Amino acid sequence: MTARRLAMAGIFALTLSAHMPHPVIAQRPHRSGLWVELGLGPSLTRVSCSDCSEVTRGSGPVGSTRVGLALSDRVMLGLEIASQVDTRFGFTSTDSSGIARNETFAIIVLWYPWDAGLFLKGGTGVATGEITVEPDAVAPSVPIVSIGEGVGMTFGVGWDFTLSRHIALTANATSWISAIGDIVLSDGAVEDVIASRYGLTIGLTIR
């Protein structure tokens, strides 16, 4: 009788378990075909040059756009355009009269080492730097704009927070290194300018 009761209790437990609602496990975004990501966040910039007496620092928002193609379930190839603007830039700590825009156009690779959302990023491409010095308020004149071009590299780490199979919020911690060469200003040239940017962005990814 005891064995029969145990068997009936076991059958009842299995039947009840089969009809109980199970927790829904969120799927990660699929990694195939085309993908697009738009991101925005704060950033810090460190600027040095061969003849500068000090390393200057600035800050400003950074925006990035990525578009690409999945090569496999763990490797994604893309093009990244990242732009940062500092409205109080100067090559010395006492100067904040310029507006600096730094952009990087890079071919990037995203590598997902595991099935989770963690990924590593690396890439290289072209970097541009634009410095605009506003005219003196006492003696107005045309703003002076100087542009430098060179090589850009980018490295970073990120995580996809799944919203649905095709959509995710993507958090990024990224560095961009831009060797933009010489910047010619009204009082002379600033040689071998290297801008290092460090940004934290939140983006929307569609795959």
Whole-number total of structural domains = 1
Helical coverage, percent range: under 10%
Poorly predicted sequence stretches spanning 5 or more consecutive residues: 22-26
CATH topology: Porin
In CATH's first tier, which class applies? Mainly Beta
How would you write the strand order of the largest sheet? 1-2-3-4-5-6-7-8
Beta-strand level of the residues, as a percent range?
over 45%
Query: What is the C-alpha radius of gyration, as a whole number of Å?
Result: 26 Å
Distance between the termini: 59 Å
Can you describe what's shown?
β4 (98-111) and β5 form a beta hairpin. It contains one helix and eight strands. Helices cover 9% and strands 64% of the residues. An eight-stranded antiparallel barrel has the order 1-2-3-4-5-6-7-8. The protein is elongated, with a radius of gyration of 26 Å. It has one domain (28-206): Porin, CATH 2.40.160. With 207 residues, the protein is mainly beta.
Short synopsis of the structure:
The chain has 207 residues and is mainly beta. Helix content is 9%, strand content 64%.
Relevant terms:
eight-stranded antiparallel barrel; mainly beta; single chain; 207 residues; elongated; 8 strands
What is the fold's blueprint, element by element?
Blueprint: H1 2-19, E1 34-48, E2 56-70, E3 75-89, E4 98-111, E5 118-133, E6 144-162, E7 167-185, E8 188-206
Antiparallel strand pairs: 1-2, 1-8, 2-3, 3-4, 4-5, 5-6, 6-7, 7-8
